[in-house]
Amino acid sequence: MHSSAIPIWFFIGILLTVYGALVLGYGLFELFTGTMAVSNYHASVWWGALLLLVGLFYSIRFRPSRAE
Fold first, then answer.
1. What predicted TM-score, i.e. pTM, was given to this entire model?
2. What percent of the chain has pLDDT over 70?
3. Cβ-based neighbours of 21, under 8 Å, separated by 6 or more
């Protein structure tokens, strides 16, 4: 029997990638405009980059493929 189910981790990876891109974009915007509340830590840049990397890892690792 052939199962054509898509792993839930693929969708979680897509979601993390989108959230990471949004948070990283906003963090870079804050960084370059100088409107950061806590400018020494750049938390939104770090968390956005981390979310983006984890999301890309899950999206690539669990992407659905035609040949199984």
1. 0.82
2. 85
3. 48, 52
Q: Look up residue 3 and give its two tokens.
A: 């199962």
Cα 51 versus chain centre, distance? 4
pLDDT tens-digit readout, 11-62: 999 999 999 999 999 999 988 887 766 667 888 999 999 999 999 999 999 9
Q: To which H or E segment does residue 31 belong?
A: helix 8-33
Query: Per residue in 32-61, is it b (16+ CB within 10 Å) or e — as a string?
Result: eeeebeeeeebebbeebbebbeebbebbee
Dihedrals φ, ψ of 2, to 5°? -105, 125
Q: What are the C-alpha distances in Å from 63 to residues 21, 22, 23? A: 19, 22, 23
The one-letter amino acid code at 52 reads L
